[in-house]
Amino acid sequence: MNVLTEAATTLRRMTTLDNPAIARVIRQVSAEYGLTADKGYTVADPNLDELYQLYSQPGHAYWVIEQDGKVVGGGGVAPLTCSEPDICELQKMYFLPEARGKGLAKKLALLAMDHAREHGFTRCYLETTAFLKEAIALYEHLGFEHIDGPLGCTGHVDCEVRMLKTL
């Protein structure tokens, strides 16, 4: 079921067929911003090529954005590991340049938080890096507040910006 379809842009839940495409997006955007595997960024996640399988678990969800039939971005939400059960994490929000500046990340983040509320989460956590100034501005606009220390066991040691929002 399509959540958003405008002209040739579609925001929808990912399928197993999207695994290679969204992994390419994440690798390309990571390279663009210098987010290397040796620093513990998403590009180092062992499940990067199998995101559909990961996000098919209870409480998890991942959406992709297609433009003209090409996956150009995506993002998801999942329970925060090693944490209180009411906290979820906004995860793997990556968008190619052609998908930026159109409000798609905001729509996807709002959809993810709605999904989280529907699954009983009361707080949403995220980690990012100071290099991603546009992302931080979006998260602040959405009501995320900066917090001092990390939550959970994300493994993203170089994500020095940590934010939390009450849902």
Automatic annotation (TrEMBL):
Q: What highest taxon heads this organism's lineage?
A: Bacteria
Q: Which UniProt keywords apply?
A: Transferase
The answer to whether the entry has keyword Transferase is yes
In its UniProt entry, what is this protein called? Answer: GNAT family N-acetyltransferase
One short Pfam family name for this protein? Acetyltransf_1
- Annotated N-acetyltransferase domain ranges read 9-167
Does the keyword section mention Cytoplasm? Answer: no
Q: Which CDD domains does the record cross-reference, listed alphabetically? A: NAT_SF (cd04301)
